[in-house]
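Need GNAT family N-acetyltransferase's 3D structure for a figure. Predict it.
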Amino acid sequence: MKISNSKIADIEEIFRLYHSATAFQKTKYTIHWPKFETSLIETEIKENRQWKITIDGKTACVWATTFDDPQIWEAKNADPSVYIHRIATNPEFKGLNMVAKIVEWAKEYAKENYKSYVRLDTVGQNEGLINHYTKMGFKFLGLFDLENTDGLPAHYHGKPVSLFELSAI
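Structure prediction for GNAT family N-acetyltransferase:
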């Protein structure tokens, strides 16, 4: 298993995994990911914020990070944090608990970058994800209505978000 930054050559695979994740979301939930803009992923790759786990040369999982997420975290954004977005696991690697691997990596990544927290969110009250993330050590902070969703992906508009936080210290 290897964790590294995604490359421009990975964009097709990233979108394949997003499509697969969205298809799964549609079978279980009323809220699902919209189609993301290629430019968003290209920017994340150029800024070294798009990540992947590879196993035996295959992409097992992808996700994005940022150190700043003011629209979702509002006043709490002032806390030094790593924010994780859009975890998508290759169906061939389901059951290997990619989130646990990302959490362990993210705690170290946060420390290396002098951040106190690892944070993530999900739209709506998704009990399955709430239980999964809390089992991974995250504290569920509750459901919050966002004040400003301008520029955020469509699934954030008019929906509350579940916020999660894990101490990296």
